[in-house]
Specification:
By secondary structure, the protein is α+β, with helices and mostly antiparallel strands. The chain has one domain: DD-peptidase/beta-lactamase superfamily (Beta-lactamase). The protein is about 35% helix and about 15% strand. It contains ten helices and ten strands. Strands 2-1-10-9-8-7 form a six-stranded antiparallel beta sheet, with helices on both faces. The chain has a two-stranded parallel sheet with strand order 3-5. Strand 9 and strand 10 form a beta hairpin. The two termini are about 20 Å apart. About 45% of the residues are buried.
Length: about 350
């Protein structure tokens, strides 16, 4: 209730047109952002937290193509590639517990791999250096389809010698977690990630019957273990705070797996699938950012560690560039206002 009241007060102060004439310069700046969002036709959610407290939570537009259901905090989006962090953190948690090593061969956990793939390590599937090809997508693709592709794959390069971003790596992570824990990845994620982070509305979709009526229109129908995850914006914000506050695993372990990517050609790409990052000359983490798409659903998660500021934007209108524009305006205006 306290958090709700804090947000309500901020909303009335910063976004109410009636208060615009009497607001300070900082409040006018935030009102201008609200107007900009309205003008872009943005359909989605904008959340901001400061010092682990939610200060902005706004929903724009509708959950359905017919525009009959207004978006609310209960609605679910596909986070796209941002959802890969769940498999990454799951593997890192098991490594922290001593239940696996990054240098373990995935053939220890996944049977019947082709001969070339028997040199793939867990490190390789976390860093997309396994040599596995991209998934061949089709509507309604199942985990069994992905496993068939995995077991019949031809390596693009010798594991560890190249880079190719592939969701087969992510499916493989989920399969490894299941083999190590002797439980479904869905159950593991619920018990070890969602519950500790207090994520109440998010889920893994493995069949058509799993699909939630609260899911926002615009996603591509898939049913892939480790890949097809749906989250509420508030849950994804909770995950970010839990991840960076030592709730799930020591954050120092996460930071240790940012540097070291030499094969992708992207110097600031996080080695273990946490997006991109920036550091200062003393190797202090300044910020990181991760985006994802599926295909009209877009997600942008940005964390400024110097300001302890998190901006999370999720949409379903198919316009990814809008998320970056909104984020830049929020960063500028919040910085100018001293928030």
């Amino acid at each position: 209730m306290k958090l709700y009241l804090e947000f309500l007060c901020l909303f009335l102060l910063c976004f109410s047109p009636q208060l615009f004439a009497n607001s300070s310069g900082a409040n006018r700046n935030l009102t201008e952002i609200h107007k900009y969002i309205d003008e872009t036709g943005f359909n989605g959610a904008v959340l901001v937290s400061k010092n682990d407290k939610l200060i902005i939570e706004e929903y724009f537009g509708y959950a359905d193509f017919q525009k009959t259901t207004k978006l609310t905090r209960k609605h679910l989006f596909s986070p796209g590639s941002v959802g890969k962090e769940f498999t990454t953190v799951g593997i890192m948690l098991l490594e922290e517990q001593g239940r696996l090593s990054y240098e373990d061969k995935i053939s220890t956990f996944i049977a019947d791999l082709p001969e070339w793939a028997k040199n793939i390590t867990i490190h390789h599937i976390l860093s997309h250096t396994s040599g596995l090809p991209k998934i061949k997508w089709k509507k309604g693709i199942l985990t069994t389809d992905a496993i068939t592709q995995l077991l019949n794959s031809e390596g693009l390069f010798e594991p560890g010698s190249g880079y190719r971003y592939s969701n087969l790596n992510v499916v493989a992570r989920a399969l490894v977690i299941e083999a190590v824990t002797n439980q479904t990845f869905s159950a593991f994620m619920q018990n070890n990630l969602f519950e500790p982070a207090q994520m109440r509305g998010s889920y893994q979709q493995l069949s058509a019957k799993d699909a939630s009526p609260e899911k926002v229109d615009g996603d591509y129908p898939t049913f892939l273990n480790g890949v097809t995850v749906y989250v509420t914006p508030i849950d994804l914000m909770k995950f970010e705070i839990a991840l960076t506050s030592n709730v799930l695993i020591p954050f120092s372990r996460v930071q240790a797996k940012l540097d070291g990517d030499e094969l992708s050609g992207q110097s600031e790409r996080a080695l273990y699938d946490f997006g991109s990052f920036s550091k200062d000359s003393r190797d202090t983490l300044l910020s990181w950012q991760h985006d994802g798409s599926n295909p009209s659903h877009h997600t942008l998660k940005f964390h400024d560690f110097e300001q302890d500021l998190v901006i999370l934007i999720m949409s379903s209108d198919g316009n990814k560039s809008t998320l970056y524009q909104i984020k830049e305006k929020l960063v500028a205006r919040l910085s100018a206002s001293g928030v």
